Amino acid sequence: MSLYQHARDGDVDSIRDALASDSAAVRRRAAEFLGEIADESDQATVDALLRAATTDDDPEVRGAAVDALDEIGEAALQQLLEELTGGRSDSEAEWVTAQKFARALEADRPELRMAAANALGRLDDASGLQPLVTALDDEDPRVRLRAAQACGTFADPRAIPGLRERLDDAEPRVRRAAANALGTIGTDEALSPLLDLLDDGDESIRRIAAGALGKASTPEPVEPLARALGDESGVVRNAAVYSVIELLSNVPTQQSHAVRDQVVSELKAADDATVVEPLVEILTEGRQSRQRRNAAWILGRVADPDASAAVEALADALADDDPQTAQFAATSLKSLGGPVAEDRLLDRLGPEHPDDARAKAVFVLGQIGGQETLNRLEEYADDDSQAVRKRVFSAVSKLRAGGP
To answer: CB within 8 A of 338, min separation 6: which ones?
Structure first.
C-alpha cells in the first residue's frame, strides 16, 4: 500500500515505519506525511522524527523531519531545539527564548539552524527578526529558505533589503520564499522588485509576483500586470486579473480615474476569455464589496455583449446586498446591451426576484429593449411594487418613443 493511502487512512504507524526505508525519497515523503497527520501527543512519532532530523544520512530527509516537527507543534520543535538551547521553562519570557533561538542560528548543524529559523517565525517577538535577516545569507539553502519564510511571518519592512538579495538566489525555493515574503510585507518598497519577476522563467514566481502586486498604492504595476494577462500560464493570468481589480481598490482617490482608464485600455487589448472569466468569478464569489464593484464596472467595458457568463453574473448582481455593486451592474448591462442582456433581464422581472433588482432590470430594459421587451413590460404596468410600476411607466414611454 502506498504512503498516500496510509496517510489518507490515518495509519501513522505504517508511515513511521517508512522512516527506516532504504529509499531516501520514501523517508522524506514519510516525514512530510507525518507532519501533516501526527499530533504532539504521539511521542513515538515525535521521537522517530527527532532521530530522522538529527541522524539521517540524507539532508533532504533531515530537512523534511525538521519541518514535520514544526508542523506537529511548538512542543515537538522545542524537543529538537533542546539539544542546543537547553529548552524553555514555562515562565521564560518570549524575548529570552528568542535570544536562545537566535544563538541557535549560529549552530554548526544546519538542521538546528533550520529549526531555529522555524521557531523564530513562530514567536511574536520583534527581536527575532534581525537574526533571521542575517540567516538569509546562510551557506545552506535549506536555512535560507526557512529564514525567508520566517521573515514573511513578521511582515516587517526591515527585512526588505535582505529578501531582495534572495530574489537572485541559486535555489528556486529560496527565491519563491523571498518573493512571497516581500508580497506579505506589501509596501510599495517591498513590491517594487516583484515587477521584474513577472518575466521570470519560473511560473510559480510569476504567479507570486502577479498575485502580490495588487497591494500597491501606485498605478505603476498596471501596465506590467496587463502584459501578464498574455502569460502562457493560466494561473499567472488569473492572478494578474485579480491584482488589477485589487489595485483599483487601493490606488489613491485622486489617481483613480486615470488608473481606471488605463486598466480598461489594457484589459481591452488582452484576450477576452483571459479577462472575463476571473472578473466573473470576482463578481459572483468575491467577499470584498470594492472588488465586486470594480469587477462589475469593468465587465461592462471589456466583455463582449454575447458573453453569456458575464451578462448572467451582472444580471444576478442587480440583487447584490451592496447597493453600489448593484448599480454598477445595471450600468454595465446598459453599456453592453444586445439580445443576451435583454433576454437575461426579462427573466428577472418576475415577483420571485427582489423588487429593487426588478426595478433596475426594468430601467436597463428601457434603454436596450425592443418590441418584445415593450410587450413584456406592459404586463407589469399594475405590478404590486410601486418602484417597479414607476420604472415600467418610464421604460414603456421611452420604448414607445423609439428609444431613450
So the answer is: 305, 306, 368
CA distance 159 to 163: 6
CA distance 366 to 323: 20
306-347: per-residue pLDDT in tens?
Answer: 989 999 999 999 999 999 999 999 999 999 999 999 999 999
pLDDT digits 0-9 by tens, 46-105: 999 989 988 899 999 999 998 999 889 878 888 887 754 555 544 455 556 778 788 888
Could you tell me how far CA 311 lies from the centroid of its own chain? 26
- The Cα 6–Cα 113 span in angstroms is 31
Query: Which string of b and e fits 294-314 if b means at least 16 CB within 10 Å?
Result: bbbbbbbbbbebebebbbbbb
In angstroms, the CA 396 to CA 377 distance is 7
Is 177 within 8 Å of 152 (Cβ atoms)?
yes
**Residue pair 348/377 in contact by the 8 Å Cβ criterion:** no
Instruction: Give dist(CA 207, CA 180) in Å, integer.
Output: 10
DSSP for 331-346, please give it.
HHHHHH-HHHHHHHHH
319 DSSP 8-state letter: T
Q: Which residue has the cell 538551547?
A: 85
Rounded to an integer, what distance in angstroms lies between the CA atom of residue 160 and that of residue 133? 9
Contacts of 178 (CB under 8 A, 6+ apart): 136, 148, 163, 164, 166, 167, 169
Q: Which residues 6+ apart lie within 8 Å of 45 measured at CB?
A: 12, 16, 34, 38, 72
DSSP 147-212: HHHHHHHHT-GGGHHHHHHGGG-SSHHHHHHHHHHHHHH--HHHHGGGGGGGG-S-HHHHHHHHHH
User: What is the rounded (10 degree) CA torsion for 210, 214, 219, 222?
Assistant: 40
Distance CA 197, CA 362 (A): 47
Which grid cell sits at 171? 535555489
Predicted TM-score of the model (pTM) = 0.72
